[in-house]
Amino acid sequence: MTPQTATPAYRRLSVEERRRQLLDAALTLFAHRAPEDVSLDDVAEAAGVSRPLVYRYFPGGKQQLYEAALGSAADELRQCFDEPRTGSPLARLTRALTRYLTFVDEHGTGFAALLRGGSVAETSRTTAIVDGVRRAAAEHILSHLGATDPGPRLRMTIRMWITAVEAASLIWLDEDKQPPAGELRDWLVDQFVAALSVTAARDEQTAALVGTLTRDGRD
Amino acid sequence: MTPQTATPAYRRLSVEERRRQLLDAALTLFAHRAPEDVSLDDVAEAAGVSRPLVYRYFPGGKQQLYEAALGSAADELRQCFDEPRTGSPLARLTRALTRYLTFVDEHGTGFAALLRGGSVAETSRTTAIVDGVRRAAAEHILSHLGATDPGPRLRMTIRMWITAVEAASLIWLDEDKQPPAGELRDWLVDQFVAALSVTAARDEQTAALVGTLTRDGRD
């Protein structure tokens, strides 16, 4: 037998590369099935590795793998909000929403299972990861709006809008991704401006921001 | 010893009365503590009965009691939306929101723990109970608006607003119930009109509804 050094059964990956490979396989599975319907066997098979190898990387089993995959998805989601400070604030929000909806589109089922709650894989730790992403989104938005010391009404408005965007994403997934992502995005941006405008009637800080948003337009 | 028939240690309650008494005691405890921090002993003590009695009514233990208490709270919440058809639709929404915020105020911690998710007491059954209340709220609103065959955009707008109201309630509890309930309520009604108005620009059915809302005013 000739040793086939050029194509080993398992290509040698670094620890970090292997971990990444397993998480990617898990995320792909979670994108199509609820967390409770994905086994470590499934992940091993999808990644083309043995079950013991998956256990070596995630000795805590399925729950640990799920939380690691969720943490990885959360990092990816945070990157959606990391928007360069060019163009008007509404143009930046539009770009961030485009990336966010692409993420929702790609992670479908896993995203929905997580936000819906009630999953057996859900714990206070997974809830904290999701809340962390929400907080990061709110901070990014306030920072892009130039609100360095946001009052309670402004903060409440932003957080309500973020929750409404999550709800819209879940409904969008349920309704076969209708309307098209671009239309949904523009409608969400309009909802953002409308929500701030309502608060502006009761809050000077928000009124000043809405003035700026209107002046800067969407380019 | 003289038998004290006038004040027995346990007043004889019917099965339904006893069940109601235990659920009320549980709901009061859940209003101040997270579900995982409430034991059957606590419920027995609060209701002034023995632990075995609590188990006789809820043989499934803590989880069964929690789900029954949740179901009872959900019924109470549904009654908040059961609004007579007098006055304009916005006046009815205002009255329903007043009752809803009273409920949130009274059920504080338990309400928050449930909506926040990640509670150890949360299962697909508890999630289904909460989703049922959301659906009921959406149906009530659409019915009061006279929308017998609501299209996807109108439905999405209503469901987004309901989620935003939940988020606002949680933030409100976090922020020592500021602003006062009446102000929060009026602001939420304004957000409702603003959200529908954004959708109206893209959807004829919603545009017709907004026209009616504006014409009918808030009395």
UniProtKB/TrEMBL annotation, chains A, B:
Residues 16-76 form the HTH tetR-type domain. GO terms for molecular function: DNA-binding transcription factor activity; transcription cis-regulatory region binding. Keywords: DNA-binding, Transcription, Transcription regulation. Residues 39-58 bind DNA. InterPro entries: DesT_TetR_C, Homeodomain-like_sf, HTH-type_TetR-like_transc_reg, HTH_TetR. It comes from the Bacteria. The keyword Cytoplasm does not apply. Pfam families: TetR_C_46 (PF21943), TetR_N (PF00440). The keyword DNA-binding applies. Transmembrane segments: none annotated. PANTHER family: HTH-TYPE TRANSCRIPTIONAL REGULATOR RUTR, TRANSCRIPTIONAL REGULATORY PROTEIN (PROBABLY TETR-FAMILY)-RELATED. This is AcrR family transcriptional regulator.
